[in-house]
Amino acid sequence: MADKRDELIKYMAGQFVHYIDTPAEERERRRLSKQAAKSSREPWVTRWFGLAPVTLFTWMRGSRGTAPSAVKAAESREQG
Asked: What is the per-residue pLDDT across 22-53, written as a single tens digit (0 to 9) for each?
């Protein structure tokens, strides 16, 4: 148990020293490049579930307050 704790402390100390030794400009540049990479990723819904939710959201957004076109067509055939 003590070995794992010592290894963890060594690792954390090494990471801290590396952070302190890195110039502030480079840390800022890395942070900005990570933010740019995150913003260019596809949405989490698409990554987790594929295109089905995107299709559903698009369909729902296009038919707000109205019935889908297939249902409209069937209703108009029944009435006319």
From this structure: 999 999 999 999 888 888 887 777 778 888 88
State if pTM tops 0.70: no
Q: Both 51 and 37 in a single domain?
A: no
The string of DSSP letters for 38-55 reads HHTSPPHHHHHHTTHHHH
* Whether 12 and 29 share a structural domain: yes
**For residue 50, what are the domain limits?**
43-80
* Distance between CA atoms of residues 53 and 70, nearest Å: 20
Question: 67 versus 75: which is more confidently predicted?
Answer: 75
Instruction: Yes or no: say if 45 and 53 are a contact pair by the CB < 8 Å rule.
Output: yes
